[in-house]
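Chain A, query sequence.
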Amino acid sequence: MIPESAKWKATLIITKFKDADSIVEAASRVGASSEMLRQRFSQHFLGQEVHEGNMLVYLGITGIWKLIAGLSSPPAVWNNAGAKIRVGTGSGAAAKADTLATFTSPVDKGMDASYPQTIGTNNDTCSWKATYGSGDANQAWNEFGVINSDGTPVLLNRFVTSKGTKASGETWTCEIQIQLS
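Chain A, predicted structure.
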């Protein structure tokens, strides 16, 4: 008998830049990776925060199954046109029953060009990335998730971890990577 196992691993990456003239924001929105931005704009780099572990929520699980089985009309999609990253100020613990309404002071941003994308040795990881420029989400960043914006929006997952307070004149990127193996 072959043992069955499946693993879900999620990683949150927040990359922060001083960016009063919005040059980092412009490069990020056209699809530059966080690593490329760090190399190209090292003099603007403020830091990077990485957090592993999050909650895949019930509505996200249902959306995945409906998408795989073609049961939803229209299907919930988390592609470039349909996905957004949501950041909020709430600090309540993540729970499987979380919904979009769980977020406090949410700010949604659409995908940067070329995201989401599959990465990893076996393309076993999907990476969603959005850029928040100088005037966007200038607040505490405590909760994060991938949502779809087509039809009735559905929350896929939720992280709760304090990553600091974004200020005007800064550009932060938020990347959420989900690996299935």
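The helical segments are 23-29, 34-40, 58-69. The first strand starts at residue 8 and ends at 18.
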